[in-house]
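Help needed: design a sequence for this.
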């Protein structure tokens, strides 16, 4: 398999993207605040220097991935974050996850970064195996989050307890 077609999402794709995001958030046990998420997705689509959303498949219905840019002294400067990767249920078990990771790797090379990072929930061992098989390694670190309650809704943590 050569991998699925992938193209950058456009504002007109937002309804379909949000539907896939809702499915992803439900599977991952994340709170889907439609207003907050739609606003963040719009902001990303409007500011390509911060990252991109790639839709998978000729009809853009096989899934999506979100890549954003970060900076770390430890990483030697810029790095990319694979913020979200979702393969639609009807498209699973066909190697699309691994193909999507290859698309992500190729895309971030065009940004001139050497490091691609991601987070995976402990409840998702299948995704973890995919990432490890694809060359990612476990840094043996935990991701910690501080939510600034003074920031109002913008600072609300999206994870369910």
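Sure. Designed sequence:
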């Amino acid at each position: 398999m050569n991998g699925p077609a992938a193209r950058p999402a456009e504002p007109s794709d937002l309804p379909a993207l949000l539907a896939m995001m809702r499915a992803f958030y439900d599977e991952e046990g994340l709170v889907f605040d439609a207003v907050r998420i739609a606003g963040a997705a719009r902001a990303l689509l409007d500011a390509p220097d911060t990252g991109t959303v790639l839709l998978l498949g000729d009809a853009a219905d096989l899934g999506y991935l979100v890549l954003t840019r970060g900076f770390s002294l430890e990483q030697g400067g810029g790095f990319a974050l694979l913020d979200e990767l979702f393969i639609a249920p009807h498209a699973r078990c066909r190697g699309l996850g691994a193909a999507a990771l290859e698309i992500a790797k190729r895309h971030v090379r065009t940004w001139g970064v050497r490091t691609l990072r991601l987070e995976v929930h402990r409840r998702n061992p299948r995704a973890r195996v995919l990432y490890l098989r694809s060359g990612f390694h476990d840094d043996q670190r935990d991701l910690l989050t501080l939510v600034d309650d003074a920031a109002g809704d913008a600072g609300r943590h999206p994870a369910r307890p």
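The chain has a mean pLDDT of 91.
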